[in-house]
Specification:
Elements: E1 5-15, H1 20-24, H2 31-45, E2 58-73, E3 76-86, H3 94-108, E4 111-114, H4 117-132, H5 137-141, E5 158-160, H6 161-165, H7 176-183, H8 196-201, H9 205-230, H10 235-252, H11 257-270
Length: 276
């Protein structure tokens, strides 16, 4: 199948404290106490090595994505940026976010692009969709045994950059921020995933969405460089895709100032050299 669209996505989550009483019997209603109990459970489960909750115990608070149309000219692809946004409106609950994501996915039938999406984002989305009774048949029925969203090595269906860049674990798995530092991309600035729970507690969900969108932009920039390296994207196509991003930021920056901050950070990281 030749996909007609790229769908670069990222999610932000907070611990699902509602599940704690069923998990451990801890019934204190205080959310902070339940988060501590969830951390205690995972530390115990991992022999004190990791307090980060497993995938089912994350509540999705933001889903951001970039959509680009895929063009083809002989051996080369070209990508035409269509939009960068977050799903739903402010105040959407988790079920509505998930219904929007999977509904959009089913209509678009895209090539997925993520950073650790196969290990974290997509499993979280699956578990949470199951919690809310949301169907996603295309995720499972599309393709064949070797080429599908379910196949680990089908980068044309789901390109998880963490997997692909590490040769599926043959070399060290590095963070998105580390890759961006080497490539001259902005990476994280001002906010990290560790800040999200506190931001949600403070009612700053819009700031979480904006942070998530900048992670999507970083992921797309790394993907473009990978496609250039593979020869899937020619140099002219790469520079055109970069110009699309710059144009989007210039056009929408006045209404979305966090994009201007991204552009400033990109300029500092790259020495104000954006194309190759």
């Amino acid at each position: 199948m030749q996909h007609q669209n790229l769908f670069v996505f990222d999610i932000e989550t907070v611990p699902d404290t509602d599940a704690v009483p069923n998990l451990t019997g801890f019934d204190d209603p205080d959310p902070a106490a339940r988060r501590q109990e969830l951390e205690r459970y995972h530390l115990d489960k991992t022999g004190g090595k990791n307090s980060f909750p497993r995938q089912p115990f994350h509540r999705v608070v933001a889903i951001s994505f970039l959509e680009a149309e895929i063009g083809r000219d002989g051996a080369h692809e070209a990508y035409f940026l269509r939009e960068l946004r977050s799903g739903g409106e402010a105040g959407f609950d988790e079920k509505q976010l998930l219904e929007g994501f999977f509904g959009y996915f089913e209509r678009l039938k895209p090539r997925l692009v993520s950073f650790n999406g196969r290990g974290f984002d997509l499993p979280v989305l699956k578990y949470r969709a199951m919690k809310h009774g949301i169907a996603a048949p295309w995720l499972y029925d599309a393709g064949d045994k070797w080429n599908s969203y379910q196949s680990r090595y089908s980068a044309d269906w789901h390109c998880d950059l963490l997997e692909v860049l590490s040769d599926f674990g043959a070399s060290a798995r590095v963070s998105l921020d580390e890759v961006c530092a080497v490539m001259g991309f902005p990476g994280k600035f001002g906010v990290s995933g560790a800040d999200v729970a506190g931001m949600v507690d403070d009612g700053r969900i819009e700031d979480v969405r904006h942070y998530c969108e900048t992670d999507v932009l970083n992921t797309y920039l790394v993907y473009l460089r990978l496609m250039l390296h593979k020869g899937t994207l020619g140099l002219d196509g790469y520079n055109a895709a970069i110009a699309d991003i710059v144009s989007l930021i210039k056009t929408e920056g006045p209404e979305r100032p966090y994009l201007n901050e991204f552009m400033d950070a990109w300029g500092q990281a790259s020495g104000d050299t954006f194309t190759l």
